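Structural prep section.
Before we set up the soaks we want a predicted structure of the protein with zinc ion in place, mainly to decide which crystallisation condition to try first. Input record follows.
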Amino acid sequence: MMIVPGIMMPVTQVSISKHTLTSKHIIAMNKILNFLKNEFLGTPEYRMYSAMDKFARRIEKYKKKKMYEPLYNILLDTKKDEFLREMAADALGDIRDKNAVEALVLSLKIEYEKIEIWPSGILVDVLKASILALGKIGGTRGSEPLCKILLDIKKDEYLRELAANALGDILDKNAVEALVLSLKIEYEKIEIWPDGYTLVDVLKASILALGKIGDTRGSEPLCKILLDIKKDGYIRELAANALGDIRDKNAIETLVLSLETEKEEDVLIASSKALAKIGDSRGVDYILHTLDGYYYARHKGVGALEEIGWKPTTEEEKELYNSAKNSKMCYQCEKIFVGDGIRSAVNLTGDWGYFCSNACDHKFEREMEQWYDGK
Ligand SMILES: [Zn+2]
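Run finished without errors. Recording the tokens verbatim:
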């Protein structure tokens, strides 16, 4: 169950089902029914669960037979239980029938209106399920209301994140401007609270969606984020990845500049990967140079090369790549080994890792003995 944070919801909106049924699974309902059967047979609670179970099974049947019409009748019948309408939205998303988009958009609007009426404390399960279903089905008719939710910054962060994710699934180029605007709004917030813990879920989802849609209008704001080294490295890494997905040649200069000014390895690798995807050789050059670096960078580099489908062209490159791929680091002394001289073991605190067979390893075993002896 998902409730927008705030004061309690109006009492008239409360039903027992909303407090006890948190998943869409009939199995859960069955468990409750079986529990109630022994002592509460014939009570109103038993009758209520019984009726809902019957209804939930009917929704499952509609889903299996791909009958979208009865499903959207349930979805849009606001007098029906919230839980059942959520199930109907889920089922419509699973059926992936484009005819359902209209009903889901309508459901989105109805449920979103409710938030306007009760600004704090309202169930959003049907709204959430409708957003997810729109993303699953695709179809650009869902874009506009989703963009509206995305940019409604007075609303819950979680809903805006879901809207951005759905837009990334729908892949409608008409949503690019709204996503760019969301990017700017959310990025500004980081300026306002430089030391505080800022939620970046909407920002992250907007960046990912821009990358997925792959429209060059996203490049410029993403380039700006990438070079802003005073901000969080994770956001810059996301921006570099999205630039790699957009494959805009105009971003090459910025990505090269990132390689020269960036300090964080994850961002450096992401920028190199993006350059390689756009087709600039400086990307692969950078990654190759990390392969004989420190342990973490080696494996990041190997992963990046695999991701871009790189193949070695010389014996030297092949050797460098293989040695990086087979590198292991001693958990104890942090020395890097390629091939022999290292074995996997468990340390005193139960962590699994590689340990080398030199002195540091023996010291480790001595500590272990002492520990067992209770010294
Ligand atoms: Zn060691």
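Observations: Residues 1-23 have pLDDT under 50 and may be disordered.
Flagged for discussion at group meeting.
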